[in-house]
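Changelog entry: the Alpha-galactosidase record was regenerated in this release. Current contents:
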Amino acid sequence: MNEQYDRRRRTLLQWLAGAPLAGAVGAAAGKDGAQGREVARIGDAAMALEFDGNLHCRVVSKRGTRPAAVTPFAPSERLRLSNGRWVERFRLARQEADRVDGPHGPGVRHRLTGVSAEGIEKTVAVTFHERHPAFAVIRVAYRNTAAQPLLVSAWANSAHTLRPAAGRKAEFWTYSGATHQDRRDWVQPMESSFEQRNFMGMNASDYGGGTPAVDVWQRDCGLAVGHLDTVPRLVALPVKAVAGGAALAVEFEQEATLEPGAMLETLETFLAVHTGDYFAALDRYRQVMAERGLAAPDAPAASYEPIWCAWGYERDYFTVPRMTGTLAKAKELGLEWAVLDDGWQNNEGDWQLDATRFPGGDADMRGLVDKIREADMKPRLWIAPLAVDPGSDLLHDHVDRLLLDKDGAPQLISWWNSLYLCPAYGPTIEMTRAWVRKIFGEWGYQGIKIDGQHLNGVAPCHNPAHKHARPEESFEQLPAFWKMVYDTAREVNPNAVVEFCPCGTSYSFHTLPYVNQVPASDPLSSWQVRHKGKTLKALMGPSAAYAGDHVELSDGGDDFASTVGIGAVLSTKFTWPIDPKPKDSFLLTPQREAQWRKWIGIYRDKMLPRGVYRGDLYDIGFDRPEGHAVAKDGRMYFAFFAPHWDGPVEIRGLGPGRWRLRDYIDGRDVGEVDATRNRIALRFEHALLLEAVPA
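Regenerated C-alpha cells:
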C-alpha cells in the first residue's frame, strides 16, 4: 500500500514538473541535494516555496544573482492538539493550481494537500499575485477525516527560520509591531538571547494591540509574516534568536472540537521575502491592505503645519493666561498650531471644564479658542476617550458602560487611575459622538489630539449588559469606534486634523485609516523618533503626516535634525516668558530661541513631510552611518546620523547627471556626485543633513 502511494506521489510530482503555469515559476519536481528529498516548488519571479513529501517548507529567495534557500525545511504550517502536541507531518497527496483575479489583481493559487497519521487532512493554499512579487498569501484548512472528534487548541502559519547567508556570521535585526508597557524600541538588533512573543492582545492592563506584522532581516535578505484580516485578531507573532538564525511565525490560540468531517480554517496570513531592511515588507503590506479597503487618508495641508503645545506647563501648572501669553511668541517663531493639552477637564469620563481654570464654563473655552485664532494659530484639544475615573458622575450613573473581564471586574487604565469603557457598546459610542461634535461645533476647535496608552487595544468584554455575540467584539470593533470619531470630526469640519498618540506604544494598523496625523508618541530617544518615522511612513504612505513629537523629548531636548531630516512634522512644548515648574524647565531662553527660530525656519522652507520618504534606499540596521532620504520637488534630501563619522558615504537614489550636495543647515557646499560615482567623504558629529540639487 505504501509502495503504491509512493509511486502515485512520484507520478504526480513528475506530471506537475511538465505542467508549468504561465505567470508563475511553475510546479517542479527534483532532488534537494542537501536533503536528498523530492520537492514541489511554487512561487513567482522573486520568491519560491519548496514543499517536501511531509509538507515541510523552505523559502527560496530569487532576488540575488541566483536563487538561494534562505530557510531550512520546517513544519511551517502546523496544528496543535489540546494535549499540547503539534501535528507537523502531512504526507503530500495532491497538488493543484488555478488562476485567480480580485482586489490584488491576477495571480496563481496553489493548493497542496496532505494527511497526517492522526487522520487530519491539511490543505495549504498559497497565492502569488503578479503585482506583489515575493509576497505569498496563505490560508490553511484542516479537516478531521478520522471517525472520532478531534480537540485542537492552536495553529501556526509561516513558521520559518531565516539563516545567515553563506559566509556571513549570524547578525539579525527585527521589527515587531506589538505593544509593550516598557515602551521598547520597535526596531531592535537581535542578540543571542532575543525573544518576543508579540501578542496582539493585551500585554498589560492598558497596553495592547499593534500592527500584526513582524520582520527579521540580515544584510542579504529578510522575511516578514503577519495576518491580512481587515479587523484586528488576537494573534501572536513570535520572534526568537535560535542557533540556526532568526525564527518567526504567526500563531493563533483557537480551541475547537472538530467532529468527523469538520474543518478549521486559519486566518489569511502572508509571508514576504525582501532585501534591505523591514521598510519594503511593511510598505508592501500597506499596499495589499489598501486593496482590501484599509488605507490611511490623505492628510490635509494643516496636518503638516508646525505645532506648539501647552504641555510644557503640564497639568499642574497650566493656566489659560500662561497659554495665551505664549501664543504671540509661538506665532513669531513660525508655529501654526496651538494645542491645549491635559489639564482642562475636571476628570476623565465626565469631561467637564475645570472650574478653577474655566470659571465661566463653555464661554471661557470659546474665549480661549478665539484668542488662539486671533493669534493667527489653529486650536487643537487633547482628549483621552474610553477612560472613566472613579468618582465621576459618568461612572456613578452609567456603570453599565464599563468593559468587564470574565470575572466581572473592570479593566484598569493605569496612567490616570481610570477604568475602560467598552468601545463596542452603543451608549459609549453615542456619548463620544456627541462630545466630538461639541468640541468642533460648539467650542470651535480645528483639531483633536487623541492620547493614551490604552488606545490601541482593549481586553475582551464580558459585560452582560452589552450583549456581545463574542467577548472579542470589544477588541475587534475598536477600529470602528475610531472611525466614528474621525468621521464625526470631519462631518463638522471637513479639514479637521485628527491626531492619534498611543503614548509610546506601537500603533494599531487597523486604526491608521481613521487618523491624519501620527506623532512619535512620547519617544524615549532620538533613535525612536527616527525609526518610528520610518515605520509609520511605511504603514501610512511615504508622505504621511508623521510628527517627531515635542523636540524636547529628543536627545538633549533639542535634536531638531532627527525630526527635520527624516521628513517629520516639527513640534515643541516650550514655555515663555517663564516656566513656573520647579524642575524640568522647558523655558525658551534667548539662546534656545535662536536655535528654535533657525530650525523652525528651515522646516517651513523645506517642508519635507510633504515629500516622498525613500525608505528603500538605506538599511537602518546595517548601513553606517544611519541614512534617511526624502525626494521633493526634483531634489533629494539626505539625513545621516552617527555619534561621530569621518569617512565615505554612499549617496543613493539620484537620477542621471551631476548633483551638487549642500549642507542646508549650515549653508555650505560639500561636493558633487552622480548616480554612478556616488561615494563622497563626509565628516560630522551626530547628524548631517544634505540637499542634492541637479548641478
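Residues 334 and 604 are 8 Å apart (CA to CA).
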